[in-house]
Amino acid sequence: MAAARLPASLVLQPRARTLRAFSTSVSPATRSPRPSPSTTERTSRYGRPLRRKALPPRTEKMAVDQDWPSVYPVAAPFKPSAVPLPVRMGYPVKRGVPMAKEGNLELLKIPNFLHLTPVAIKKHCEALKDFCTEWPAALDSDEKCRKHFPIEIDTAGYVSAGPSIRNPKARVVTLRVKLSSLNLDDHAKKKLIKLVGDRYCKSTDVLTIKTDRCPLKRQNYDYAMYLLTVLYHESWKTEEWEKTKTEADMEEYVWKDSSSEKNILETLLQIKAAEKNLELSKEELLGTEEVEEYRKSVVSLKNEGDNENTLSQYKESVKRLLNLT
Amino acid sequence: MLKGMTRLISSVHKLDPGRFLHIGTQAPQCLAAHLDNQVATESPRAISRTSENDPAKHGEQHEGQHYNISFQDLKTVFSHGLPPRFVMQVKTFNEACLMVRRPALELLHYLKNTNFAHPAVRYVFYGEKGTGKTLSLCHSIHFCAKQDWLILHIPDAHLWVKNCRDLLQSTYNKQRFDQPLEASTWLKNFKTANEHFLSQIKVQEKYVWNKRESTEKGSPLGEVVEQGIMRVRNATDAVGIVLKELKRQSSSGIFRLLVAVDGVNALWGRTTLKREDKSPIAPEELAFIYNLRKMVKNDWQGGAIVLTVSQTGSLFKPRKAYLPQELLGKEGFDALDPFIPILVSNYNPKEFESCIHYYLENNWLQHEKAHTEEGKKELLFLSNRNPGQLERLCAYL
């Protein structure tokens, strides 16, 4: 109704003009001739309790060096009036800017970590220090930690308020170990990598075993340690059927007994035969420097793949081998 | 005539390429005036043609220049070897001009210094699409033809592993398959290319075709070829015999053999051909591919093997693949090892200028901005100096 709305608009007008002051002074020229109630009074002139004028936001009263953890002591939704940052979020309309923080639902939806600023975390650490023991003085570098404790176990605990304190996610145990810290020879390492498959990362040399098949964390930890033990011992053993390993099973290219070796041998033999130079035996032919260089270039070509470097190296070594200028 | 004039122009004027090209397209009458006025200054600049038409004499000084291939050679040596777009260009310009480029020069240098007592060396051209591998191959074939070698040129090995309508079971070996049509066309082209050799080379074994026909020992190879052309059923076997005989006899030194295969990665790839029961055929089950594999092995002397690996036309290979190991696969690499890989790359700036100049000379670029600096920069940017791409772009101008 127009009558009900009018006081509200009149109330808003002075607020728009005077940002901070509580004063009710308004220029009489702009005021409508109808008598309007004073904005500080709470008169029930129109039979409806008037809304209290909105107070200025708390951000205006905040000092720069205030104690922030007391503003946000726990995880709380984003309060635009309590966060003094001029944050904007949202997709802008054409030729516009993202929406301001007041009444911005986007800022409410996302998780915020305003309760975990470095200052707050420092305070938490200080509080937790009473419950901690000293860090061993001998372990002062990462390498020493890795040397003495090569196996790293990751577990997660979950706390929540609810009818039950159990959380099924808490039983997961991840075991990480670098293979360089295990005592493995060449064959054992290759066998272990083949046994674990995807769980080994070649670039970081880390074996990761994640177990969650037992109901308790303790049981999963025991199972992970058992798996590591079994893998280690099995990879050291050599079975009968491992002798039938073919070229397709090889992880990397091996020059010896490869077709490349055969080809080059035949070629060299033919060259020597053409030059009536049959004194050299097979071993001597294969032992020359050019063949050695050729071997290196072929191995790098096969293992690393084609690129400028490997191809030009290969080209040079073949040219030298076949005595081309 | 235009060749002589362009050389005179270049020796007379000291110009940047933009202005130079502009004068190149002017009418010849103004040349006299220029000659009177100006003095011959320094060495010739980037001219796009050379008069040296013998590939044997091509050297580094001819790099970037086009040389002419005579129509005679076109009909005999290149009856089936040139890429189709190049053939169209030849027909349009009424001349066949090939650019002398560094990879081809490198190969010619190796070929000139080949030791014919040693086993045949394999050279593999590789490079991205459209960089000029096939034309470099053709350049070397022209060189060998002029040096009177026997040319065994398979223009595109990919054509043999796909789209074959009539596959017959091989008469020689029941496990393998024949491709009569392709074999007979190839034999016809082989005959035109090496006419004079066919009567000189004698077959060293008796070959029985069927109950009535046979080729006696000591008869010329031309007879085998004729037999293949006439009796299409036996064409693939005829090809096999030709390959075998040539391989055996090249070591004896009567002739020198050049084996040139374009798209050699087809020999070790996959085929799209299927048997009647829809099971796929491996390449080695095709008699032609089987014999060709034996040919590119380096267990014979007295010649050279020049190959290209190309993705265009290949089956089941990604479009961006151009490196030898990617296209040949493990099997192909092991079979061709050891070989000399030669990279064919895009034009360098000099070659690019030369190519544009050649098109302008032949009035191929009709766009008014084509000879200006901005026009050339635009072409450079659009084509990235890739020869194939440049040719396609200029076709629209």
Automatic annotation (TrEMBL), chain A:
- Which one of the record's GO molecular function terms can you name? structural constituent of ribosome
What species does this protein belong to? Neophocaena asiaeorientalis asiaeorientalis
One Gene Ontology cellular component term attached to this UniProt record is: mitochondrial small ribosomal subunit
Biological processes annotated in GO: mitochondrial translation
Coiled coil residues, start to end:
264-291
Signal peptide location in the record? Answer: none
- Alphabetical list of Pfam families matching this protein: MRP-S28
Mind telling me which residue stretches traverse the membrane in this protein?
none
Where do the Small ribosomal subunit protein mS35 mitochondrial conserved domain residues begin and end? 167-238
Protein name listed in UniProt: 28S ribosomal protein S35, mitochondrial isoform X1
Keywords from the UniProt entry: Coiled coil, Ribonucleoprotein, Ribosomal protein
Region feature Disordered, mapped onto this chain: 21-62
Which portions of the chain have biased composition (kind: Low complexity)? 23-41
Judging by the UniProt lineage, the source's domain of life is Eukaryota
Task: Supply the InterPro entries for this chain.
Answer: Ribosomal_mS35_mit, Ribosomal_mS35_mt
Source taxonomy: Eukaryota, Metazoa, Chordata, Craniata, Vertebrata
From TrEMBL, chain B:
Q: Tell me the GO molecular function terms.
A: structural constituent of ribosome
Residues of the region (Disordered) are 41-62
Instruction: Provide the primary localization.
Output: mitochondrion
Extent of Basic and acidic residues compositional bias = 51-62
Q: Which family does it belong to?
A: Belongs to the mitochondrion-specific ribosomal protein mS29 family.
What GO terms in the biological process aspect are recorded for it? apoptotic process
Q: Name one Pfam family in it.
A: DAP3
Q: Does the keyword Membrane apply?
A: no
A GO CC annotation given for this chain: mitochondrial small ribosomal subunit
Q: What is this protein called?
A: Small ribosomal subunit protein mS29
Q: Where in the cell is it found?
A: Mitochondrion
Q: Sorted alphabetically, which SUPFAM superfamilies does this protein's record hold? A: P-loop containing nucleoside triphosphate hydrolases
Q: Which UniProt keywords apply?
A: Mitochondrion, Ribonucleoprotein, Ribosomal protein, Transit peptide
The record's InterPro entries line, in alphabetical order, gives: P-loop_NTPase, Ribosomal_mS29, Ribosomal_mS29_met
